[in-house]
Specification:
Shape: globular
Number of strands: 3
Low-confidence stretches: none
Strand order of the largest sheet: 1-2-3
Number of helices: 7
Mean pLDDT: 95
Length: 139
């Protein structure tokens, strides 16, 4: 789940010199390059996060601007980890793809941010996510 600066450093370690500015100019291309080089699913975080799997990439719906604060990306990583763990069997049976889980995590993360009034702190975001998941389980 890198942002552009982190992706630039990751690609540099892989022998590809791509500045943050160049990544921002072609986010889908940079995310695909990282996915191809690492063999991993890449979620390039940003206002419009990009999900890349192999040679395919797609921009996800725009996220609330308030998510551009310290710690919210860590919350997203935690949500991803929890959803992967909760759906481990379905992933293993190919009933669900990692890309599906990533899209769900991003949607939940964004929905929680939209529910919070004012500036967002990471703890407020985790509390809102817990609330939304609880409401979903009640239904």
């Amino acid at each position: 789940t890198p942002h552009s600066g982190e992706l630039s450093r990751l690609l540099g370690r892989l022998g590809v010199d791509l500045s943050r500015e160049k990544i921002e100019a072609d986010r889908e291309g940079a995310a695909m390059l990282a996915a191809e080089l690492t063999g991993q699913t890449i979620l390039l975080k940003g206002n419009r996060s990009v999900l890349a799997v192999g040679s395919q990439a797609k921009a996800l719906p725009a996220a609330p601007a308030a998510l551009a604060t310290a710690g919210t990306g860590d919350v997203l990583a935690g949500v991803l980890g929890a959803l992967i763990a909760a759906n481990f069997d379905a992933l293993g049976k190919a009933e669900l793809s990692l890309a599906d889980i990533v899209e769900g995590a991003v949607a939940l993360h964004s929905a929680a941010a939209e529910s919070i009034q004012g500036p967002i702190a990471a703890l407020d975001l985790t509390n809102e996510i817990q609330k939304l998941v609880g409401q979903s389980l009640e239904n």
